[in-house]
Amino acid sequence: MLLSEARCGEKVRIKKLLGEEAILRKIEGMGLRKEMIFEIIQRCGRNILLKNGENRLAVSNDIAKKIEVELIEKGELPCKTSPCFEKTTKTKPKWRWCFLGKEE
């Protein structure tokens, strides 16, 4: 099973890292190594939020497809999929060319 297929609340162990050498170095540089155990907390857009002890890590879906995992424990939490930002009704103020507080 790939990390991108895992659901929220599940605990997984990394079995194998797939891909080219450059991708493997990037994955290991983020702190993901073989035999490590993570809990999947949330899916946010195309990203997956992982938890290992007190550490949290966001992994993109493209990188998650390069990580083969095994399921250790099924989660009870429903998967919370949400966009990573909230739309607000406030508009951004327009940029105006004004000096010393004088507006035209």
Describe the structure.
The protein has 104 residues and is mostly beta strands. The chain has a single domain, classed as Ferrous iron transport protein A (FeoA) (SH3 type barrels), CATH 2.30.30.90. It is 12% helix and 35% strand. The chain contains 2 helices and 6 strands, in the order βαβββαββ. Strands 1, 2, 3, 4, 5 and 6 form a 6-stranded mixed β-sheet that branches. The termini are far apart. The C terminus is likely disordered.
Please state the CA-atom Rg, rounded to the nearest Å: 20 Å
Q: Determine the number of helices (DSSP H or I, runs of at least 4 residues).
A: 2
CATH structural architecture? Roll
**Biggest β-sheet: count, sense, barrel?**
6 strands, mixed
Could you give the order of the helices and strands? EHEEEHEE
- Report helical residue fraction: 10-25%
Could you give the distance between the termini? 62 Å
Mean of residue pLDDT? 79
| Helix vs. strand class | mainly beta
Q: What fraction strand?
A: 25-35%
CATH topology: SH3 type barrels
Could you tell me the number of beta strands? 6
The fourth-level CATH homologous superfamily is Ferrous iron transport protein A (FeoA)
Oligomer: single chain
Q: Indicate the overall shape.
A: globular
Number of domains: 1
Instruction: Report the CATH C-level class.
Output: Mainly Beta
Low-confidence regions: 96-104
